[in-house]
Amino acid sequence: MRRYLRIVVLCLACGFCSLLYAFSQLAVSLEEGAGGGGGKPQAAAASWLAGGGRGGARGVGSSGAAAHPGGSDRYSLKVQPAQRMHLAVVACGERLEETITMLKSAIIFSIRPLQFHIFAEDQLHDSFKGILDSWSFLKTFNYSLYPITFPRENAVEWKKLFKPCASQRLFLPLILKEVDSLLYVDTDILFLRPVDDIWSLLKKFNSTQIAAMAPEHEEPRIGWYNRFARHPYYGKTGVNSGVMLMNMTRMRRKYFKNDMTAVRLRWGDILMPLLKKYKLNITWGDQDLLNIIFFHNPESLFVFPCQWNYRPDHCIYGSNCQEAEEEGIFILHGNRGVYHDDKQPAFRAIYEALRNCSFKDDNIRSLLKPLELELQKTVHTYCGKIYKIFIKQLTKSIQDRYDRAPKER
After folding, report:
1. Do residues 285 and 167 make contact, with C-beta atoms less than 8 angstroms apart?
2. Over pLDDT 90: what percentage of the chain?
3. Does residue 89 sit in helix, strand or coil?
4. Are 88 and 172 within 8 A, CB to CB?
5. H or E stretch including 47?
């Protein structure tokens, strides 16, 4: 009998403990539902980020990327920030307007939020801040401003290589140590479709590829590298570095084959020896050094089609970018200063249309018709004769922008 009483008491005790546990869980769930500032995250405010020149880098339009200050760990885990696409540009001299127009084109069409890394001469910082802060109402991008930075012992030599500050791009993996992947573009780039689409090419990299670029030329008969280069270069016609997608984690880890030593060198160790060896033989500065690196390490490069880096060379002697003819231009690269002279008016027409465009929906919707009329005036040039490829993808990008739900824009 005593044994049965013990069993009954034990069962009652277990039941009582189970009830206590159930009530405690109910209390926790009610507390979570009622607490935490009304159950909605506060908008993240603009903030100064660590690093950068003259006291830091400004972040704007964070679109909820920061966790709720003072919130519990449980709460912050529920509010995961959207993964940002990182875009870098280097601006020196008279490149402010070009850079701002490029950034505008990236913002207009992109879907996911953007993080801009802007490397600029000190005298340009205030202008960048003033313009980009005035866009903070968009809440679709952050930006960080950095000074131009080169290794101290060779800073003057690096800065004067090719165009002012252009070789800064070579050091981005070493400066932006916390950034995993990055899209670098020149200031004279215009996005005619979302940055998301070129960013997605990172997923197509195989296990050995660390970067992606487009060929310098499609037609070897007019190629520069295969006719004039006095140094090694990638592939048949070299590659153009004006649009360069990078997995910088892999770049920092890789040991590169080279023609200076039997020992493989890491990114931070290979650049200066290459410059010393080839500085009398290179014409296009940092782009030539990249060509030399990928000549010796071809397995490390992913090559994307010319429509992702469409330049005057693709049409001034006749159309030679088949992918652009079929699908339109995805990214326009106005090198040779064509945005600012009358030599290639088709390029200039696209630039001026986007430069003068505001972020208002009506303004973007109405961009196409006057632009097409302007392009029709350029048919006396080879590029103008195929003007429809300049607006084929642009038309689709504008339509897609308004087909998306408002919360996605």
Report:
1. yes
2. 67
3. strand
4. yes
5. strand 47-49
